[in-house]
């Protein structure tokens, strides 16, 4: 799997992401600066990592979404290339209109930084095939704006088309207001686009991939991508 | 030429920041405040004629200043 990690000013999780990708795929990802106008030849997966691009000025991810490299990412996605956005990366993908909706300020206004449980809703996508449908995984979150919002039609479509892949839940998998950490519509933690090749999620799977991190539940996402691309190739 | 773009949240979009400000105003004992919605104001200087300026401001608001999923905007050329 040949991956490319986008680097925007103010991003701070790109090294964690690169480490996880290297660990699981066995290949060094390319680090791609935001001012680039193309992606490296043969890229299989583009990742927008977490952080605070442009200091979250204007709206989270808004300025990064308008940077030159995002035109290349849009073209890559429209050719069916796999794109993953984590945390600020999810915000950037929404602002780029690669994904619908927006991440608003957390309902209780606090920055949330701890492990959460999320339920994997289906396992038949490139982004979830490393898990079983209904499986609960423990992954960290670190965000102030993770409260997913969209108009009613969009939410209805996301649910109707099975495009919610990850949902905040209890350790045993129950979904409800008590476990919805940031007030997101339908407890949404991660969604895919209509075509199914772009995922945005608030939790950080890249931070739970090695024993030393205390948990390896995030590994399945990357392992699933590697398996998917291995099969496709 | 000076202009102002005002960006506000659409009706029905939850505004936790506005709610917190509303609570703070009430706790200050300022009477008569029913609700608060937070928005943004951009003061912009432009060169060129007014028609072009209006088109440029609309493009700026659509492409960057506002996220029209949740926000409305108003453009005023102040002269």
From TrEMBL, chain A:
InterPro entries: Class_I_gatase-like, PRibForGlyAmidine_synth_PurQ. Pfam families: GATase_5. It is found in: Cytoplasm. One of its GO terms (cellular component) is cytoplasm. One of its GO terms (molecular function) is ATP binding. Keywords: ATP-binding, Cytoplasm, Glutamine amidotransferase, Hydrolase, Ligase, Nucleotide-binding, Purine biosynthesis. The active site is at residues 87, 204, 206. It comes from the Bacteria. The keyword Hydrolase applies. Its main location: cytoplasm. It catalyses: N(2)-formyl-N(1)-(5-phospho-beta-D-ribosyl)glycinamide + L-glutamine + ATP + H2O = 2-formamido-N(1)-(5-O-phospho-beta-D-ribosyl)acetamidine + L-glutamate + ADP + phosphate + H(+); L-glutamine + H2O = L-glutamate + NH4(+). Part of the phosphoribosylformylglycinamidine synthase complex involved in the purines biosynthetic pathway. Catalyzes the ATP-dependent conversion of formylglycinamide ribonucleotide (FGAR) and glutamine to yield formylglycinamidine ribonucleotide (FGAM) and glutamate. The FGAM synthase complex is composed of three subunits. PurQ produces an ammonia molecule by converting glutamine to glutamate. PurL transfers the ammonia molecule to FGAR to form FGAM in an ATP-dependent manner. Part of the FGAM synthase complex composed of 1 PurL, 1 PurQ and 2 PurS subunits. This is Phosphoribosylformylglycinamidine synthase subunit PurQ. It comes from Nitrobacter vulgaris. The gene is purQ.
From TrEMBL, chain B:
GO terms for molecular function: ATP binding; phosphoribosylformylglycinamidine synthase activity. Part of the FGAM synthase complex composed of 1 PurL, 1 PurQ and 2 PurS subunits. This is Phosphoribosylformylglycinamidine synthase subunit PurS. GO terms for biological process: 'de novo' IMP biosynthetic process. Part of the phosphoribosylformylglycinamidine synthase complex involved in the purines biosynthetic pathway. Catalyzes the ATP-dependent conversion of formylglycinamide ribonucleotide (FGAR) and glutamine to yield formylglycinamidine ribonucleotide (FGAM) and glutamate. The FGAM synthase complex is composed of three subunits. PurQ produces an ammonia molecule by converting glutamine to glutamate. PurL transfers the ammonia molecule to FGAR to form FGAM in an ATP-dependent manner. Its main location: cytoplasm. It catalyses: N(2)-formyl-N(1)-(5-phospho-beta-D-ribosyl)glycinamide + L-glutamine + ATP + H2O = 2-formamido-N(1)-(5-O-phospho-beta-D-ribosyl)acetamidine + L-glutamate + ADP + phosphate + H(+). Belongs to the PurS family. Keywords: ATP-binding, Cytoplasm, Ligase, Nucleotide-binding, Purine biosynthesis. The keyword Glycosyltransferase does not apply. It comes from the Bacteria. Its EC number is 6.3.5.3. GO terms for cellular component: cytoplasm. It is an enzyme of class 6 (ligase). It is found in: Cytoplasm. Pathway: Purine metabolism; IMP biosynthesis via de novo pathway; 5-amino-1-(5-phospho-D-ribosyl)imidazole from N(2)-formyl-N(1)-(5-phospho-D-ribosyl)glycinamide: step 1/2.
């Amino acid at each position: 799997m040949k991956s490319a990690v986008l680097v925007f000013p103010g991003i701070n999780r790109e090294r964690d992401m690169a480490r996880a990708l290297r660990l699981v795929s066995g290949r060094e990802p390319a680090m791609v600066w935001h001012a680039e106008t193309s992606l490296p030849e043969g890229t299989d997966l583009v990742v927008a990592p977490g952080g605070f691009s442009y200091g979250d000025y204007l709206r989270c991810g808004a300025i990064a979404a308008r940077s030159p490299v995002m035109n290349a990412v849009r073209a890559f996605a429209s050719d069916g290339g796999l794109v993953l956005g984590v945390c600020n990366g999810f915000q950037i993908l929404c602002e780029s209109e690669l994904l619908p909706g927006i991440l608003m300020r957390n309902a209780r206004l606090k920055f949330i930084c701890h492990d959460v449980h999320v339920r994997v809703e289906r396992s038949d996508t490139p982004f979830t095939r490393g898990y079983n449908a209904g499986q609960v995984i423990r992954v960290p979150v670190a965000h102030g704006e993770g409260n997913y919002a969209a108009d009613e039609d969009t939410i209805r479509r996301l649910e109707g088309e099975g495009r919610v892949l990850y949902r905040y839940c209890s350790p045993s998998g129950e979904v409800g207001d008590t476990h919805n950490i940031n007030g997101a519509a339908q407890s949404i933690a991660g969604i895919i686009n209509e075509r199914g090749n772009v995922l945005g999620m608030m939790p950080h799977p890249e931070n739970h991939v090695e024993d030393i991190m205390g948990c390896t539940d995030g590994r399945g996402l990357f392992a699933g991508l590697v398996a998917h691309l291995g099969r496709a190739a | 030429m000076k202009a102002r773009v005002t960006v506000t949240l659409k009706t029905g979009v939850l505004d936790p920041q506005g709610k917190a400000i509303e609570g703070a105003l009430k706790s200050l004992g300022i009477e008569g405040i029913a609700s608060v919605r937070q928005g943004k104001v951009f003061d912009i200087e432009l060169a060129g004629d007014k028609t072009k300026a209006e088109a440029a401001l609309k493009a700026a608001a659509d492409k960057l200043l506002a996220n029209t999923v949740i926000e409305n905007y108003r453009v005023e050329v102040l002269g």
